[in-house]
Amino acid sequence: MRPRDRLLKLADHVQRAQLWLAAAALIALMLVTVADVFLRYLFNNPIRGSYDSVESLLLVFVFNGMAAGFFGRRNIVIDLVDTLAGPRATAVLIRVADVLSVLCLGLLLWAMWLPAVQAYHYGDVKMELRIPIYVLWIVALASLLGTMFCALVVLAAKPASADSGRSE
Amino acid sequence: MSPAAIGVTGVLVLFALLILRVPVWIALVLVGFFGNVVLAGWPGAFALAGTAPFDVASSYTLSVVPLFILMGEIASESKLSGELFNAARVILSGFRGGLAVATLAASACFGAVSGSSLANAATMTRMALPELRKAGYDDGLATGCIAAGGSTDILIPPSIILVIYAAIAELSVPKLLAAGLMPGLVLTALYMAVALVVAHVRPDYAPDAENYSLRARVAALREPWQFLALFIVTIGGIYAGIFSPTEAAAVGAFGAILIGMLGRRLGLSDLLRAIESTVVVSCLLFVIVIGANLFSFFIVQGHLPELLLDGARAWNLSGLTVMVLIILGYIVLGCFLEGIGMVLITVPVFQPIVTQFGYDPIWFAIIVVVMVEVGLIHPPVGMNLFVIQAQAPDVRITSIYRGIIPFLVAPLILIVLMFMFPGLALWLPKVLYG
Predict the structure, then answer these.
(1) Positions of E strands within A19-165
(2) Among B13, B140, B304, B308, whose Cα sits 20 to 30 Å from the Cα of B354?
(3) Coil, strand or helix at A125
(4) Residues B73-89: pLDDT tens digits?
(5) Torsion angle of the four alpha carbons B296, A103, A72, A13, in this order, in degrees rounded to the nearest 10
(6) Single pTM value for the model
(7) How many Å apart are CA B192 and CA A128, to the nearest integer?
(8) HEC string of B192-205?
(9) Are the C-beta atoms of residues B352 and B322 closer than 8 Å to each other?
(10) Of B30, B50, B341, which is closest to A76 when you measure between CB atoms?
(11) What residues of chain B lie within 8 A of the CB of A78, using their CB?
(12) Is the ipTM, as predicted for this complex, more than 0.85?
């Protein structure tokens, strides 16, 4: 197998793992909320910390779910220019978008580092579940790193064609 | 350079990036971040870029988005829409254009459990288009009905775009979901009227259809009970104050899975496909909302709304004139921007202006969403039209364009009605929430 294909395969594994982590978070989010509603209305005994659970699971969901979208170049684009520019010019624009994707993800990662460190030092915790906020920051940064890896592999190893990166 | 000039430059750069095929979220992040660097300095811009992704991704209000998307995906995967269309076809049989009206009715009902216009158009193309063609309907009228019917999805609750709108404009989600219902129903009725007029003017477009007995119609009424149950539990639960939007969406998604599995319409592979699609679609929306956060902060820093407001006052423009200009602007923007992007880019600019002129922000939100609907269906780039063509490649795009044109009158009539009777949007939120 060529190194390029090996890289693509690795990124595919990463995005699939993150996708199913996000899926698990979504199902957990749904079940916690449903259980909370039923326990509240049937037994007047809601789940303690359901609000915190929803917020935390949503964070896991969002940061892990991004990778699949980036790996498939499925971010929403306005592809009007495709009809005017030829396939070669479109491919160049897709490459530019790939570069900007990596740069923007890098920028967000870099910018998120400081508040993550501050969250660690301040020792803030979630109100009801008492989960340290910095743990959530670690999850966010690690997941974003996975997404950035997928975006980098797309830039380095995936051919650019107008079929990839069409608007949703 | 004044902050306002920087703001204007930023908006122009944003449009240039979008036209050059830069993904919407990247364009928003780049313009938002560097605009904030210029206006607020590096530390301020960095602090916002560092905290916005975390805040958006852990926002309880936005947790409703993936859950409502999941409910719609499950409804689509479990082929509930097929039963819905069959029931509508039987109930609304016996008159010329009945199948077109049935398609619109089924789309509106599907909209009551799904919040995505594109999903609605794709699902109804698969379900309704073969039946419409088999009945001898003109391709243009058939696809026009499907595209128009699909667009009502973003107005009839649950609407993803209204939830995101509420988050970005700091409005109440339940109030916005209540405000969308009446205009959504009126728009559906207007679309039906258009379909009937087209069928009357061009009888060759809509041949006479089969007429079912009263007994068959009554029997058909029972078929879509699942949709009714899901709608009553979710949206009824929100309106009645029993559930928060997130709770309603979770119960709705769970209910859709239960109905699908117990009725043996939803297998494990269907469920996994629905979940996978939900993850990808939701997260693509979330990254745009993250970008929109940076961008809207930049718009506020650049005092762009104040600049436009001063301009309107200097030209002695009335509130109505400003609204008409904004609506015309949305028609133009709809030619090249997709719905969520259009909302996230324009609302931070326009909402402060219209509220200064005394318009209700909830009423304005519904106007904006109606204009997004127009953008979804008007040629040359209405996304619903492309979705239909992708599902039915043998239908010529020119037929789809020709078919949708009469339907464009309906949302414009709705806009006029909303100016004449603002209560169309404001009555239900007032009754429910005071």
Answers:
(1) none
(2) B13
(3) strand
(4) 898 888 777 788 888 88
(5) -120
(6) 0.88
(7) 51
(8) HHHHHHHHHHCHHH
(9) no
(10) B341
(11) 18-19, 21, 24, 336-338, 341
(12) yes
